[in-house]
Amino acid sequence: MPPTTPESLGLSSARLARIQPAMQRYIDAKKLAGIITLIFRHGQIAHFQTFGSMDIEAGRPMHPDALFRIYSMTKPITSTAVLMLMEEGALRLSDPVTDYIPSFKDIKVYQPRGTADFGLVPPTRPITIHDLLTHTSGLSYGFEENSYVDGLYQTKVWQRFDKEPDLTLAQMVEGITKLPLAHQPGTAFRYSVATDVLGYLVQVISGQPFDLFLKEQIFTPLKMQDTSFTVPPEKVSRFTANYGPEEGGGLKVIDAPATSNYTKPTQCPSGGGGLISSTLDYLRFCQMLLNKGELDGVRLLGRKTVEWMTSNHIPAGMFDGGNNSMGFGLGGAVVLDAGRSTIPGSVGSFTWGGAANTKFWIDFQEQLIAILMLQFMPSDLYPVATDFTNLVYQALVD
Question: Which of 191, 197, 137 is nearest to 172 (CA)?
């Protein structure tokens, strides 16, 4: 059999070559330390390239099997676990969360009254599992500096980890249920800790620790051998350093591999952002979704479930502020109108990214998967994901 070429997969080698200088510019300018780019189409890898360093200080060049903090790219995996339990008949997405986590029954909703005053009122209806999957529950993350609710998340959730490093997933979720919702369930999209609650839900319903469920039900069947919540000692040499911008230019280490919390066991595996993975491992998860739930003879989800998961589940304009180019499915964003977007793509594509600038998307129309891996925070400082998206689509020629 002749070797696979980009041309045999409908891509131009000459146009794919444009990726190299575009990514290398970020490295040469000392804006980013290292990058991996991958394009998969029609069942084959069409492009897989490394740039720069995985750890500048240690003198380690970026390697194809480097391990990355994928942060919120954990969310589609957690959502998959929930849907697997749904397919087994263990839950319904319409179920109130209180059926499984009783402490949610006393939760209140923040209601502003004027410029400074506010009240706490009962929810008009219970939070459902579907609300958690679509980030419409009213839970929050703590990102908004001027938000009363988000201020509580900062002090009552995130700062708690500094005082209680052995905090369990159950204790974290119990603390979340004591905070008010930012809005009534189902009325708005608000990115939140909802997927961490879903991880605990998986644990409660399955009777297994959440991390063990993912390992036994998803990672082992899909042969994702490098995906976990902790980097074991024998893999620390493959673990990338995480960087941020240095004042005055250049890069500074914000999380070194040898001293990272990711090298220590955790009692609170985060379904919203806690996984470590490699590029090829995450490709296998994406392949499963592209194949409508199956990979190499192993089926995790039914075809219709994947089609449903990757469909829009919220009112048009709720996710992207009224632009109507994007919607949100069960664990990721969905392209609704490619013409309204500022980057090329196809209607129905499913995508999400992570806080350290990782990104993936699955274009079902083009039978294409693209993955961008790097470790730099904050996620919106440089348009590297936009550049990569443009470069992927300009290389399609069939």
Answer: 197
Compute the distance between CA of residue 283 and CA of residue 8 in angstroms, rounded to an integer: 20
* Element housing 359 (H / E): strand 359-363
Query: What letters, b where the CB count within 10 A reaches 16 and e where it falls short, cover 3-32?
Result: eeebeebbbeeebbeebeebbeebbeeebb
Reported as type and span, the H/E element at residue 198 is helix 194-206
**CA distances, 325 to each of 288, 329, 331 (Å):** 25, 13, 17
| Mean pLDDT, residues 311-324 | 91
* Cis geometry, peptide bond prior to residue 265 (ω within 30 degrees of 0): no
Q: 78-211 in CATH: which number? A: 3.40.710.10
DSSP character for 371? E
* CA–CA gap between residue 146 and residue 62 (Å, rounded): 39
Is residue 74 within 8 A of residue 270, CB to CB? The reply is yes
pLDDT at 2 over 70: no
Residue 39: how many other CB atoms lie within 10 Å: 24
Q: Give the tens place of pLDDT for each residue, 146-188.
A: 899 999 999 999 999 989 989 999 999 999 999 999 999 999 9
- CB-CB contact of 384 with 362 (8 Å): no
Q: Return the SS3 of 134.
A: coil
Contact indicator for 343, 349 with CB cutoff of 8 Å: no
* Virtual torsion, Cα 220, 221, 226, 232, nearest 10 deg: 0
Q: What is the Cα–Cα distance from 44 to 321, expressed in whole angstroms?
A: 36
Q: Which residue shows structure tokens 């510019």?
A: 25
d(CA 372, CA 359): 5
pTM of the model: 0.97
pLDDT band at 250 (very low <50, low <70, confident <90, very high): very high
Sequence-ordered list of residues with C-beta below 8 angstroms from that of 8, at least 6 positions apart, any chain: 2, 44
Mean of the per-residue pLDDT values of the chain: 96
